[in-house]
Amino acid sequence: MQRKGFRIRAAGGVLLLAHLLLVGWVTLRPLDVPWVSAPNLHPFAGIRADLALGPRTAARQIGGALTLLAPLGFLLPAVGGRLHVSPWGSLLRTVTVAALLSLGIELFQTGVPGQVVDVDSLLLNTLGVALTHLVVVPAVRARLRRGVERPRPAPLRREERAQGPTPTISRVGIAPQSDVLPASRP
């Protein structure tokens, strides 16, 4: 079973690296545009603007932001490779890492021509990761746990239950043994 866990972590690491390279290429490449809109630093202003453009455009814009980092919701826990972990702790770690990655992308975009900083992208990217984690990870972990049984301790004998196991003491010499006894003092 140790090999299976290693394979899952290795595959998760390779897929995570490939996904991050793709995200970096999509979000950090310079764009040749005639004009650039102002950065959006007001939460939900960009989402409201997308909704005002119509349902099809809003679905494309908002859906794109939700799905950009969404695979991290599964890939980050896969790289960790732990099956027996607190679900809330795992969600918190995954969402925190995703939010920091999204923030890093937004900060790097300040120096890329044609790319604009948008706080709503940060919110939607993080929400997409959280939703993916909530939908996929608990089910996958439960399925993998069914295949891996935890080792159970051997049942205790009757004597051990009542008094506990017999203590053992290793024999360690304190001082060298001598055949000559010290002279007694009068």
From TrEMBL:
Bias-annotated ranges (Basic and acidic residues): 151-162
Domain VanZ-like per the UniProt entry, residue ranges: 17-136
Top-level taxon in the UniProt lineage: Bacteria
Key words, A-Z: Membrane, Transmembrane, Transmembrane helix
Pfam family, one: VanZ
Renumbered residue ranges of the record's region Disordered: 151-186
Chain segments annotated as transmembrane: 58-79, 91-110, 122-140
Protein name as annotated: Membrane protein
Species of the source: Streptomyces uncialis
Lineage: Bacteria, Bacillati, Actinomycetota, Actinomycetes, Kitasatosporales
